[in-house]
Amino acid sequence: MGVPASRVERIVKGRTALDDYDERAGRLGPQDVKGWRSLGLWASQQGLPAQSQEAYERVLAIAPDDPEARQALGFVRLDGRWLTEEESYRARGYVKYDGEWMTPDEAQVAQAGAAADEARREAEQRANDAEIAALEAETRAREAEERAREAEEDHRSDYPVYWGGWGYGVNYWPSTPVVRTPVNRPVQLPARGRR
Fold first, then answer.
1. Full-prediction pTM beyond 0.85?
2. Distance of alpha carbon 27 from alpha carbon 23, whole angstroms
3. I want to staple 52 with a disulfide (CB 3.0 to 4.6 A). Which of 43, 99, 105, 152 is the partner?
4. Does residue 47 share a domain with residue 83?
5. 166 in a domain, yes or no?
6. Confidence (pLDDT) at 11
7. Taking Cα atoms as reference points, which of 90, 94, 104, 44 lies closest to residue 69?
């Protein structure tokens, strides 16, 4: 929440959990396993993960097999040894697939399922593409039929129209203008010498 500076009368700095951690850590001796373990738990409960880790690492520097510190730092005991979580999974034959630890058989099943899902999605996409192409072809065919019908109607209007009673023969209005070209007829000139 923001407050305008004009409305602030004074600023009073209070103690934070980090201040308390620093104070408590300052009172502990370098070999105080119980004190550092207790401080690590307290820091974890206060939402100070980096400080909690620091305290537990100090415990391990003094007592490398301390179970509480090892567990707090994510170690797992397997066959009498402390291992990281990842090391313990690998030691038990697990593999990491898609961010999860599983047996190799489970990983194969998951891979097969993922491949089947991908194949199904691709088949659906191809079916959708084919349906769209069929609809487009149908639309183009309808448009071509419409153009053909319009062309046929236009062509019919070029046929002669009979106007009954208006003279002999066929009378029609041509759809294109008729251009009459002059006809060249030979002209007879008067013969010379004869008058």
1. no
2. 7
3. 43
4. yes
5. no
6. 82
7. 44
